[in-house]
Amino acid sequence: MAGGSDRKRSAASAFGAHADAYRDSTVHREGDDLDRLAAWCSGADRAVDVATGAGHTAGALAAAGVDRVIAADAAPEMVATAAASFPRVEGVVADAERLPFADDAVDAAACRIAAHHFPDPVAFVAAVARVVKPGGTFAFEDNVAPEDPALDEFLNTVERRRDPTHVRSHTVADWIGWLEDAGFTVETTTVVTKTLDYTEWLGNVDASAERRRGVAAAFADPPTGAAEAFSITRGADGVESFANMKLLARATR
Ligand SMILES: C[S@@+](CC[C@H](N)C(=O)[O-])C[C@H]1O[C@@H](n2cnc3c(N)ncnc32)[C@H](O)[C@@H]1O
């Protein structure tokens, strides 16, 4: 894998080891966001779901009427799980930044809650723009950071301490700029805020005691404005919940 290859290999192997957990995870299996991305792609004959994980978005695209769905992921175990779990979904092991498809190969592409793991988001958006036909759709979703640099740094620090495969949550403005620079017209953007239970959020990645201490240390010394921006709630034992933001964007090539 080119471009940050050690980092990408270690992310793929970390994810590959948890393919079954991703297949069974409620967060990944359902949600209004999943329905919305699938609806945006529903008119396509052929679509690719980039960084498919256990294939829930690929499966939702197939269920929404897309004839042929390619589930692409850097982790071979995820690809195998996705292809085995959903009808009319075929799997391809692929780096999101170097998609192994011909130009204009698909009518639609989706990528749900994965791009914060990619070292080069500009290369990723360019790769998607290359494989989507003119007039085709890109249905995109990822975690985003606030515009304020100190709050952005805080969010990305806690995310990286919790999960070393986290590269960066970017801002809404970054994503819109990269999409437009790659030739997409951004038709719709929505930012949804979700409250995360702190203990569950750490448990989802099986964070070690050392990683938990690192996250707690960051939450113990937040920058000005973090409590309000992330709606941090605290109890006797420390942080109980906080809010994270996700961008959903529909773009046309
Ligand atoms: C949180 S999961 C994705 C969830 C999935 N899209 C869904 O809707 O359920 C993140 C996925 O990104 C994949 N991934 C990380 N870096 C990648 C890269 N550079 N290229 C392709 N896949 C990558 C991981 O292997 C993992 O399966």
Architecture overview:
This protein is of the alpha/beta class. It has one domain (5-146, 165-194, 246-252): Vaccinia Virus protein VP39 (Rossmann fold, 3-Layer(aba) Sandwich), CATH 3.40.50. The protein has helices at 5-16, 19-24, 26-29, 32-41, 56-63, 76-85, 121-131, 149-162, 172-181, 198-204, 209-220, 226-229; strands at residues 46-50, 68-73, 89-93, 106-112, 132-144, 185-197, 233-235, 238-252. Strands 1, 2, 3, 4, 5, 6, 7 and 8 form an 8-stranded mixed β-sheet that branches. Helix 4 (32-41) crosses helix 5 (56-63) and helix 8 runs antiparallel to helix 11. The two termini are 26 Å apart. The mean pLDDT is 94. Bound molecules: S-adenosylmethionine. Residues 8, 11-12, 15, 28, 51-53, 56-57, 73-75, 78, 95-97, 112-114, 117-118 line the site of S-adenosylmethionine. S-adenosylmethionine binds at residues 8, 11-12, 15, 28, 51-53, 56-57, 73-75, 78, 95-97, 112-114, 117-118.
